[in-house]
Amino acid sequence: MTRPPVREAARLLSGAGLAAALLLPTAVQAQAASPSRVPAADGKKGQELPGMPSALDPEAELVCTPASREKAKKQDWSRQRLDLDRLHRHGTGAGVTVALIGTGVDPEAAGLGGRVTAAGQAADDCVGHGTFLAGLIAGTGGDSPRLAGVAPGAEILALRGTDRRGQADTDLVVEAVREATAAEADVIAVAVALPRQDPALSGAVAEARRSGAVVVAAAAPDPPAQGGTEEIPSRTYWPAGEPGVLSVAGMLPGGARPDGSLPTGGIDLAAPGAGVVSGGPRGDGHYLGGGVPVATAYAAGAAALVRAAHPDDSPEDVVRRLTATAYPADIPQLDAYAAVTTVLGAPAGPAGAERAADPVTVRDTSAADRATGRATLFVLLGSAAVLSVLWAGFALTRARARGWRPAGAAGTPTE
Predict the structure, then answer these.
(1) pLDDT digit string, tens, across residues 370-379
(2) CB atoms within 10 A of CB 314
(3) pTM
(4) What CA–CA distance (Å, rounded) separates 156 from 298?
(5) Which residues 6+ apart lie within 8 Å of 92 measured at CB?
């Protein structure tokens, strides 16, 4: 038995509408989903660059990190996320000194020449990690200006907080904090995290804050190279756990902490900490690095910009500004542009507890929005095309049944 044309057309139209309803959210979700892997220097496809270690194998023969022969061809995601191109129109951190406590810094490294003070062992960066971090804080990018650091006009005071292989040493960190205080550094960035609190370190950090320095520290060490972190209990690391210190953790492009991050509490701020590009102490090539120290360097650079833009702010005000203007999340995410440009109201409670008085600048999602819009338009146009074809078929069937006379005309078809 043949179905009447009206019933058949209605059945087809209903099926087409249901298919469109099911396809639309699926297509939108596929376009708007966050990337599952960390992009490197070359946008979505990534780019192969030598890795920058945070420390060298203590059991192996000492061989310093070799010069990189590769150069990044594009700006990496971290600089895009922090909107550094626009940020640098509001300041470069000129006149501010950032003391960087880590593996040392090569004073003649590309993009840093003439703005690094490094005495004694601090000028010998065998690992290369300290020079990598210095580039994120205050590098000009050399012949790649879009790979400049957060505060390319700032000065770097390089201090050793590790042995030559990059293993953290409490006594060296204490001595470095004291040297930074004596040198009247505006920002002190501690790129190492110690597992135990030390009275001498507590005293040195307290004195640094009383002298007017903003102290920024890694919230936790990088995870061990071998073995998982599932059985490692959450604990506080130092000097990040000291009162008034800005404790910083690393994040992926989607905002989450990297897999395997050591558990810890009391984190004040998250900053890019994976797939980040910078230079090293030998040659003018680039490396790919990540980890909590990388995020700490970015936060220290932002602190330098805030100090330059708001010279009358106390260390507590600088920390409050960085946390109050951060992008809202489980762990507030660094928004350096907002930290520099937002007008804050008076404190409403403990430092860092309130939000900005003005709307906070958040990351630009226009690209994702356009992709979602295109997916939506594609599905809607496709659905409309299907419906048009079905309606044309239905109309032709009805017209044939009427003998091609207009709808509503009297009489019957001529035989």
Answers:
(1) 443 444 444 4
(2) 13
(3) 0.75
(4) 14
(5) 151, 152, 153, 154, 305, 308
